[in-house]
Design a protein that fits this description.
alpha/beta; Four Helix Bundle (Hemerythrin (Met), subunit A); Heat Shock Protein 90
């Protein structure tokens, strides 16, 4: 029998360190997901969580295969076998299966502890759990056995650098980058103050000429303001120089060669080709390009999926390649290039290409009904869609490309697919160079500011009523370069448009998007500038319409729009009563008090409600909200549950106990998913209980109208 562990001297230690962190994080994710499935109230929720768990296990299996950690790879493979059946056949895991999968998660966690202590788990790691998983797959028994092993204590890894360098955590570099970005943003504030001082100086000059008796006083004020404006401009230039230099150094410290994201992929190609009786090699171009660490980290999982997909689906067997007049050895190419302020990564193979007929069949369509092959090709990113005829340990589940699309959108990028004319398929990922400072176009919709990454903006045009036309399937705008599908931003966000007269020209932003350009109708275009982007956080992670929050010069927050989601909205647009300008939404002048300890959540809900015609007040916790109710009143309350001082349950109970507000509608919008929490909220007196992970603006507004 193989020894329990071996020293990992033969492995690249840096790559192994990255993998160790991934095993630790994903093992914890798997355990939490299994516990969430066990605690979930309804079957639909359990099935949704099981599908998410399948994706996590699938990703970890690919990472383990990259490092040839066969023990972890084997555990994940057999976990995937069990989970894929539950997803495909839509049944909920029984407790015995959950116990077995938790045992498997323990075995993965044990492997993470061994890796952290500098030891490599053997191929036989978790052998008893693997046998139990195999038995469950083979027999379908409810309780095939398999119990958790006690976890060994975590051994800290100590590192020491004596070559004059030191290790700085990624979190600290991220913090430095955000601080330098804030410094650059503050420069805009100082410039505005300098402009205000210059304006006041001009007013003082005019005052001196109008009122002669105050000339001396006005002259003194004018001189003071001139000196202030001069000082502010000087300080602004100095701070801008220092801040720019700091920002440059921090960004440089965060960069790594693109080749780092490709480490170990050559082994993936070789091992997968050997396992499937093929011959293939990996070629990397642009490996020397320096890119931001956050982009590099986010790319690794996507590149792994694309390379596996190329070998599994694209590269043919040596015999097939000979018959096609190709070299017996297939080639997978990964090429990186900088285009403007974007990074483009192309993963291409010289195989058979995408089988359009099989893809059409997998998508549930007849080939003769497909008018646009490019649109059909883009459907490979849909979850559960695979062109593989069989399911193997390498492919066939229709998971990998869906993960790629989600990962790339999280990085505020886009993913496209195309056929290679000489044979093969190509996937092109377009990503920003950094996730911190973003050059954006500021637009107004529904009297609120939003931003669009200028890297996706093709041009800004004005659209007249005569420019609106209808194709057979969707509304379009006639432009000088041809018809373009459109989406009205205010309408899409459930807001009332600020356009007072739809007979006049409407501003539209034409975006470069997967599948071609789309036009976004807005109320006005406010300008263009570089702003600091902030993550939306876990509570809003599933609100796909927005990619980040932007901090404006005056401290307000403007949400960064997701270009991919806008493009999909334009593609889905349909009309049944002819071409027309979008209609506005009637106002309902009621006052709503929005209560949430997250500034982003408060801002998002405020935008939705004000767009629908409500007056909105805000509070950051239950106690502050109760005081506002006593002082100013409100027609309705929308509240989170988990808040400091007074939570949403307690606030609801206080409202119901009050003679003044006992009939005031209360809607709880919370991240709590458990059925008992919903029951508690309704018993406390809430009129509706909505979950943030299932939040939909239209459903939210319908709920508001219903509870009035």
């Amino acid at each position: 029998m193989a020894t329990d562990m071996t020293k990992p001297d033969q492995f690249d230690r840096e790559l192994l360190q990255m993998f160790t962190q991934e095993v630790r994080e994903r093992a914890s994710d798997i355990e939490q997901a299994l516990l969430a499935i066990e605690d979930a109230g309804g079957a639909d929720e359990k099935l949704r969580l099981q599908e998410q768990l399948l994706r996590t296990v699938h990703s970890l299996k690919g990472a383990a295969g990259l490092l040839q950690v066969r023990g972890v790879e084997g555990i994940c493979h057999w976990m995937e076998e069990i989970l894929s059946v539950t997803v495909n056949e839509q049944f909920v895991l029984e407790k015995s299966r959950l116990d077995l999968l938790l045992s498997a998660a323990d075995a993965i966690q044990d492997a993470a502890h061994r890796l952290e202590s500098g030891e490599m788990p053997s191929p036989a790691h978790g052998e008893s759990v693997v046998d139990a998983l195999k038995s469950a797959v083979a027999t379908g028994a409810d309780d095939p056995g398999g119990r958790s092993k006690p976890r060994p204590p975590q051994v800290p890894v100590r590192t020491s650098d004596t070559d004059g360098s030191m290790r700085v955590s990624a979190d600290r570099l991220d913090a430095l980058l955000y601080r330098s970005g804030e410094l650059l943003s503050f420069g805009v504030v100082i410039r505005r103050h300098a402009e205000e001082a210059s304006l006041l100086r001009e007013h003082a000059r005019k005052l001196r000429s109008i009122v002669p008796e105050s000339a001396a006083l006005a002259a003194g004020i004018e001189n003071g303001l001139r000196q202030l404006a001069t000082s502010l401009r000087r300080d602004m230039r100095l701070m801008h120089t220092v801040a720019t230099a700091l920002d440059h150094e921090v960004r440089h410290a965060r960069t790594q060669p693109f080749a780092e994201a490709c480490k170990g992929l050559d082994r993936v190609v070789r091992d997968m080709a050997a396992a499937s009786g093929k011959s293939a090699e990996l070629k990397i171009m642009g490996g020397e390009i320096e890119i931001d660490r956050s982009i590099l980290s986010g790319l690794q999982d996507s590149l792994r999926h694309l390379v596996r997909n190329a070998v599994a689906h694209g590269i043919q067997s040596p015999e097939e390649r000979r018959k096609a007049g190709k070299p017996e050895r297939g080639r997978v190419l990964i090429a990186a290039a900088i285009s403007g302020d974007r990074l483009q990564v192309r993963v291409e193979d010289d195989g058979r290409g995408l089988d359009v007929a099989r893809l059409s069949k997998a998508a549930g369509e007849h080939l003769k009904e497909v008018k646009d092959e490019a649109e059909l090709l883009r459907r490979v990113f849909e979850p559960g869609l695979s062109t593989s005829a069989t399911v193997t340990s390498l492919s066939g589940r229709g998971i990998g490309l869906d993960i790629v699309k989600r990962n790339v959108e999280t990085l505020r990028g886009t993913a496209e697919v195309s056929q290679v004319p000489t044979g093969g398929a190509a996937f092109t990922l377009t990503l920003p160079l950094t996730l911190a400072m973003v050059r954006v176009l500021e637009v107004i919709a529904g009297e609120h500011m939003f931003t669009i990454d200028t890297a996706s903006v093709q041009r800004v045009i004005r659209v007249h009523a005569k420019d609106f036309a209808m194709s057979e399937e969707s509304g379009e705008i006639s432009t000088l370069t041809g018809p373009v599908p459109f989406v009205d931003l205010a309408d899409w966000l459930g807001m009332r448009s600020g356009r007072s007269d739809t007979e006049h020209a409407v501003p539209a932003v034409v975006l470069d998007a997967p599948g071609g350009p789309v036009a976004v109708l807005v109320d006005s275009v406010a300008g263009e500038q570089e702003l600091l982007a902030r993550p939306l956080g876990p509570r809003l992670a599933k609100v796909r319409r927005y990619s980040a929050g932007m901090v404006l010069a005056d401290g307000r927050i403007a949400l960064l729009l997701n270009v991919a989601a806008l493009a999909e909205a334009a593609a889905r647009a349909r009309s049944t009563d002819g071409a027309r300008m979008p209609r506005t939404i009637p106002a309902a002048r009621r006052k709503v008090l929005v209560v949430d300890d997250s500034k982003y959540v408060r801002t998002l809900v405020k935008l939705i409600l004000e767009g629908a015609g409500y007056d909105v007040a805000m509070a950051s916790n239950g106690r502050e909200a109760w005081q506002q109710l006593l002082d100013d009143g409100a027609d309705m309350v929308v509240a989170d549950v988990d808040m400091p001082s007074m939570n949403g349950f307690e606030l609801t109970e206080a409202i119901r106990r009050s003679e003044r507000f006992t009939n005031t509608p209360v809607v709880l919008v919370t991240g709590r998913e458990a059925l008992e929490d919903k029951v508690r909220g309704l018993r406390a007196g809430a009129n509706a209980y909505l979950r943030k992970d299932q939040f939909d603006a239209q459903h939210f507004l319908e709920t508001m109208r219903r509870v009035v």
